[in-house]
Design brief:
The chain is mainly α. It has 2 domains: 128 residues; 121 residues, Cytochrome Bc1 Complex, Chain D, domain 2 (Orthogonal Bundle), CATH 1.10.760. The chain is 33% helix and 7% strand. A hairpin with a 2-residue loop joins strand 4 and strand 5. Helix 1 packs across helix 5 and helix 7 crosses helix 11. It starts with a helix and ends in a 7-residue tail after the last helix. It binds heme C (2 copies). One heme C (HEC) binds next to helix 8 and helix 9.
Length: 268
């Protein structure tokens, strides 16, 4: 019988957390190469850094096979490497969303570690990062406040947890010169991702305004956008919207995410 922690970790990593959206190598068509999953190497280049995603498979040399559980958790929730291995103690570039993973409940952190230890080790040497500016993560209010599982009987609260650990609002909030505005621009969209090709993609407004946002959409329409990448008007959504991962969301989790999104104050 499968270990329930590994099963939960598999679900989290491959659905809501979409770790592979950044950490899995892709082929020329942009499809994830399944037998190299989570072995890193995707390069992200911004004015602040040029980094390749780390190999987070258990390969002892090029991955995280020699890290302790506590070291893996620290990288996840504080964004700091262990005091051994590659680049000892060096903070991870802000693109690794530790400011959101900070919200992870202890049992979910354990499950993620258990799952990462269970995946196939892949040897894949990653080039060293180049940091051009001090590392800066914007505090995400819900992650700073943390979550108490006893409040999860309220679907919108449970949904807020999932949206936090899914770092949805990192992409979907107002953003300027590398700084996210979670206080007055939560869910407003507008951030441009250049790498999507064809002149890039502008992130959509998912706050609850009835015209600028998704407030006028039905639950089914929101669910279809999240899990199938099809917008309200039938348009196919571009990456980096991670719908291929969210396709695996359980029905109750998806319903709670939608319940939370309906509570995000409307913004034009
Ligand atoms: C938005 C992209 C992105 C997402 C999503 C993401 N990561 Fe990362 N992660 C990175 C990048 C980039 C680095 C390397 C940063 C650097 O070198 O400064 C990194 C580094 C790491 C490291 C440090 C490993 C090492 O050898 O230095 C671990 C562990 C890690 N990520 C685990 C995860 C897990 C588990 C998830 C899902 C819960 C995840 N990451 C989601 C981009 C991402
Ligand atoms: C890595 C960045 C990123 C993350 C993380 C992300 N999204 Fe998106 N999302 C986008 C982009 C970019 C678009 C617009 C794509 C397009 O217009 O082609 C989008 C579009 C959408 C849409 C469709 C809106 C419309 O008007 O068509 C919804 C709904 C949505 N995202 C919800 C979510 C939810 C919920 C999460 C978290 C579970 C999430 N997104 C995580 C980047 C992201």
């Amino acid at each position: 019988m499968a270990d329930p922690a590994v099963e939960r970790g598999d679900y989290l990593v491959n659905a809501i957390l979409a770790c592979g959206n950044c950490h899995s190598p892709r082929d020329a068509n942009g499809e994830i190469i399944k037998d190299k999953a989570l072995s890193g190497g995707r390069v992200f280049s911004t004015p602040a850094f040029v980094v390749a995603t780390s190999n987070i498979t258990p390969d002892p040399e090029t991955g995280i096979g020699r890290w302790s559980d506590a070291e893996i958790k620290r990288a996840l929730i504080e964004g700091i490497r262990p005091e051994h291995h590659r680049l000892p103690g060096v903070p991870l570039a802000a693109i690794m969303p530790a400011n959101f993973y900070k919200a992870l409940l202890p049992e979910d952190l354990d499950a993620i570690v258990a799952y990462l230890r269970s995946v196939k080790p892949v040897r894949n040497e990653i080039s060293d990062p180049v940091y051009k500016a001090p590392i800066h993560r914007d505090p995400y209010p819900d992650a700073e406040n943390g979550f108490d599982k006893s409040t999860f009987t309220d679907p919108a609260k449970r949904g807020a947890y999932l949206v936090t650990i899914g770092h949805c609002m990192e992409c979907h909030s107002a953003w300027s010169r590398g700084v996210s505005d979670f206080k007055t621009g939560l869910g407003r969209g507008g951030r441009v991702f250049a790498e999507a090709g064809n002149g890039g993609v502008t992130v959509a407004n998912i706050a609850s305004d009835r015209t600028a946002g998704i407030g006028g959409w039905t639950d089914q329409e929101i669910a279809r956008a999240i899990t199938q990448g099809i917008s309200h008007d039938g348009r196919k959504l571009k990456p980096p919207m991670a719908y291929t991962f969210y396709a695996g969301l359980k029905a109750d989790d998806l319903a709670d995410i939608i319940a939370y999104l309906r509570t995000v104050p409307p913004l034009q």
